[in-house]
Design brief:
By secondary structure, the chain is α+β, with helices and mostly antiparallel strands. The protein has one domain (9-125): SH3 type barrels (Roll), CATH 2.30.30.110. It has three helices and six strands, in the order βββββαβαα. It has a six-stranded antiparallel beta sheet. Strand 2 and strand 3 form a beta hairpin. It is globular, with a radius of gyration of 14 Å. The two termini are 26 Å apart.
Length: 132
């Protein structure tokens, strides 16, 4: 399955911590932006709202892992697609719907998630509910 920048797509990106796997948590909005958050080692992180282990998906989780909601952000999906196109070794994987739902549900309990990020997640959730 190719990287499309949709909910559940994950890829490794360079960041201040040297590099982490990020997950797309929303579909692109009308401006072409998505919410992303990064996975981090649970042992070193202060907020364990959701955890995963290799038995959940050994291609994505090599150790006990959680989400760094403090680093969640809204970015242009085009920048992710361009990154994948220019970096064949970016290690793309798809994260299942069940795991995505757990991550999004826990975002509402996070003390650290930026306000504009939770607002975007909420906006998209309401739009999806209205479309059902």
């Amino acid at each position: 399955m190719p990287f499309t920048g949709k909910v559940g797509d994950t890829l490794k990106l360079s960041d201040d911590g040297g590099g982490h796997r990020y997950i797309v948590l929303t579909n692109p909005n009308k401006d072409g932006n998505v919410v992303i958050a990064n996975f981090t080692t649970a042992r070193y992180w202060k907020e364990w709202l959701v955890t995963f282990s290799p038995r959940d998906n050994k291609r994505i989780f090599t150790k006990k892992t959680t989400i760094n909601y403090a680093d969640a952000r809204i970015i242009p999906v085009r920048s992710l697609i361009d990154h994948v196109a220019g970096n064949p070794g970016c290690d793309y994987e798809f994260c299942g719907v069940r795991h995505c739902n757990k991550i999004i549900a826990a975002a509402y309990r996070s003390e650290f998630i930026p306000g504009e990020v939770i607002e975007e997640i909420t906006k998209q959730s309401k739009a999806e509910d209205a479309g059902k």
